[in-house]
Design a protein that fits this description.
This protein is mostly helical and about 450 residues long. It is built from 20 helices and no strands.
C-alpha cells in the first residue's frame, strides 16, 4: 500500500501532531504556573465526592474553574481543528455539549458507592454516549465535535509525562520481569490464537484486543488501533470489553489473592500486570496493603512504557506484512515513518523531558505537584474521548464485529493466560526466587 507523502506543513495539519501540541501546551502552562493550584488562571477543576446530594460535588470555588476549563479547551481545540482544515464552526457548536456529558460522567463516577465499586468515569462516559447514539441518535452537529481520536491521543501524550524512569528503577529487575517479559508473550499468544485458531478475519481487531489485554487496556488499544488503522467499531468493541472486565477483575482479584494466601508484594505485582487500568490497579492494590499498592502501581507504570513500543512494532508489521501487497516492492524506512502514529513521539518525549530534565531541575516534589495537575487534564481528555466513542457507535455496528462471539472468547482465553503467566512471573520476581525481596 502506497502511503500519502507528508511534508513539514503536516506539523500543523495532521491530528497526530496537534495531539502533541495540545499536550505540550497544557504541560507547559502547568509547569510555569499559568494554570494550576495557586496560579494566574486558577486550578484545574476536579469534581468532589458525594453520597446522596450531587450538589456536594460542586463546591463554590469549583464553578468558575469548571466553566473556564470548558471554554479554554474549546478555544484550544478549535484552533487545532481550524488548522486541520475541519469546519471549526461546526466543531465549536457541539463541543460544550460533549464537555457537559463528560461533566455528568465525572459526577456519576464521584458518587461514593460508585467510586468504591470501581465504576469510573470511563464507563459512564461510554454508556452515556451509547445511550444517546442508540436511542435518539447522535445529531450531526454533535457528531462534528465527537473527535475521539484527537482527545485520546492528547490524553496519551499527557500520560507520557507520568512515566518517570526514577520510579521505574525503584523496582528494577523484578518489575521488568513481570511487565516486560509477560506482555510480549501474551500478545504473541493472543495473535496466533485469534488469527490461526479462532480464524478471526479482522487482524486489527485481534491485535487491539491483544494489546488491551496485555499492556494497559484502553490506552494501548487506542495506540494500536491507530497503528493498524482499525475501524471505530472494532476499537469500541475492544474498549467496551476491557472496561467491563476491568471492573470485575479489580473486585475479584484482590479477594482471590487473599484467599490463596499470596504475599502482598507478589499480589501487587500480579494485579499491576493484569488489571487493565492504572486507576483500577491502584485501587485494587490498596486492598492488599500499602506495599502491594506501591508494587502494583509501579509495575503498571513500567508496563505503560510499552504503549509506544507496541504501537511502533504494530506499525512496522502492518506496513511490511499485514497490509503489504505481495507484488509491491519491499517498503523502506520512510514508508514506515509515514504510517507510524506520530502522537507516540509526544508520549515518549514527555516521559524523557519529565524524567531527565524537569526532575533534576525542579526536584521530585515539584514535579509530582505538576503531574498531579496534568493528570486531571488527562482525565478530562480521556473522558471526552469515551463520550465521543459512545456517540460515534451503535449496537448494530458493534454486533457486526462479534463474529459468533469470537472476540469475547479471544479476550477471556487471553486474559486467563495472562493471569496465570503473570502470577508465575510475580512469584519468581517478588517472591524471593530470582531477586531479593523488595520489602
Amino acid at each position: 500500500m502506497k502511503e500519502q507523502r507528508q511534508s513539514w506543513s503536516d506539523l500543523y495539519k495532521l491530528e497526530d501532531w496537534w495531539a502533541i501540541w495540545f499536550g505540550s501546551i497544557l504541560m507547559a502552562l502547568v509547569s510555569i504556573g499559568i494554570i494550576g493550584n495557586d496560579s494566574l488562571l486558577g486550578k484545574i477543576p476536579k469534581l468532589g465526592k458525594w453520597t446522596s446530594n450531587p450538589i456536594d460535588a460542586f463546591p463554590a470555588d469549583l464553578i468558575i474553574p469548571l466553566i473556564g476549563l470548558g471554554l479554554g479547551l474549546m478555544i484550544l481545540m478549535t484552533i487545532g481543528v481550524y488548522f486541520m482544515k475541519i469546519d471549526w464552526k461546526r466543531f465549536m457548536k457541539g463541543f460544550l455539549v460533549v464537555f457537559l456529558i463528560a461533566c455528568l460522567s465525572f459526577l456519576l463516577a464521584s458518587q461514593t458507592t460508585m467510586k468504591s465499586n470501581g465504576i469510573g468515569y470511563a464507563i459512564w462516559a461510554l454508556l452515556l454516549g451509547l445511550l444517546i447514539s442508540n436511542t435518539i441518535g447522535t445529531p450531526q452537529w454533535l457528531l462534528n465535535s465527537a473527535k475521539s481520536e484527537m482527545y485520546i491521543k492528547t490524553g496519551l501524550v499527557l500520560l507520557g509525562a507520568e512515566i518517570l524512569f526514577s520510579k521505574i528503577l525503584k523496582l528494577g529487575g523484578p518489575g521488568l520481569v513481570v511487565a516486560w517479559m509477560v506482555t510480549p508473550t501474551v500478545i504473541i499468544f493472543m495473535w496466533y490464537f485469534g488469527t490461526r485458531w479462532l480464524k478471526i478475519n479482522s487482524k486489527p481487531l485481534v491485535i487491539i484486543i491483544a494489546a488491551a489485554t496485555s499492556v494497559c487496556g484502553v490506552s494501548a488499544a487506542i495506540a494500536t488501533a491507530a497503528a493498524s488503522r482499525a475501524k471505530k467499531e472494532e476499537l469500541t468493541l475492544a474498549v467496551g470489553m476491557t472496561m467491563i472486565f476491568t471492573v470485575l477483575m479489580m473486585i475479584a482479584m484482590p479477594a482471590l489473592a487473599k484467599y490463596m494466601g499470596i504475599p502482598p508484594e507478589v499480589g501487587g505485582a500480579w494485579l499491576g500486570g493484569t488489571i487493565d487500568s492504572t486507576g483500577a490497579v491502584v485501587a485494587s492494590g490498596a486492598l492488599l496493603g500499602e506495599n502491594a499498592e506501591k508494587v502494583a502501581a509501579v509495575v503498571k507504570m513500567v508496563q505503560n512504557v510499552l504503549i509506544g513500543f507496541v504501537a511502533f512494532v504494530v506499525a512496522i508489521l502492518w506496513v511490511t506484512k499485514v497490509d503489504r501487497d505481495p507484488d509491491a516492492p519491499k517498503p523502506n524506512f520512510m514508508e514506515i515513518w509515514y504510517r507510524f502514529p506520530k502522537f507516540i513521539l509526544g508520549f515518549v518525549l514527555a516521559s524523557v523531558v519529565f524524567s531527565f530534565i524537569l526532575m533534576p531541575l525542579l526536584g521530585s516534589e515539584q514535579v509530582s505537584s505538576i503531574l498531579n495537575q496534568t493528570k486531571v487534564f488527562r482525565g478530562w481528555f480521556f473522558c471526552l474521548a469515551f463520550v465521543s466513542i459512545g456517540l460515534e457507535s451503535n449496537f448494530k455496528d458493534l454486533a457486526s464485529q462479534m463474529v459468533g462471539g469470537k472476540p469475547i472468547f479471544l479476550y477471556i482465553v487471553g486474559q486467563s493466560f495472562n493471569i496465570i503467566l503473570t502470577l508465575f512471573a510475580a512469584w519468581l520476581a517478588f517472591g524471593g526466587i530470582l531477586f531479593d525481596k523488595v520489602f
